[in-house]
Design brief:
This protein has about 130 residues and is an all-alpha fold. It has helices at about 5-20, 25-30, 45-55, 55-65, 80-85, 90-100, 110-115, 120-130.
């Protein structure tokens, strides 16, 4: 097996950092220039999952607009929708649901998260999408 190119690895790390920071315009420009919108890290976290987990609804929406898979799960079975529910972000939840994210996808699912953490507003949003 060949070693990954250090410059490619550095670019990937920068993309994940942009998603975590909510640097929407910069990340969107990179995706528009050819960075895969469904790029994942060594834990299976996609740019979308990281943006949702770090509570950046604008970045979530921009990635979805560029074709990010709304239901893609990481290696632990977590989805961007579950992350957005955990962070109690109605804007991210709404964008994900509008893009077709399934409240029952993943494990624990977004619905499981809303019930377990007793998040009635999130539960209403999820159940309203069914």
């Amino acid at each position: 097996m060949t070693e990954p190119d250090p410059e490619v690895l550095e670019l990937a790390h920068q993309m994940f950092d942009l998603a975590r920071a909510g640097a929407t315009d910069e990340l969107a420009a990179c995706v528009d220039a050819g960075v895969p919108v469904n790029l994942t890290n060594d834990k299976g976290d996609s740019l979308l999952i990281l943006a949702a987990y770090h509570n950046h609804p604008g970045t979530v929406a921009a990635l979805l607009d560029r074709g990010a898979e709304a239901d893609r799960a990481n290696d632990r079975g977590q989805t961007a929708l579950a992350a957005a529910v955990f962070r109690q972000s109605p804007d991210s939840v709404g964008a994900l649901l509008a893009a077709g994210a399934d409240p029952d996808a993943g494990g624990p699912s977004a619905l499981d998260m809303a019930r377990f953490y007793d998040l009635p507003e999130m539960l209403r949003l999820l159940e309203g999408a069914r």
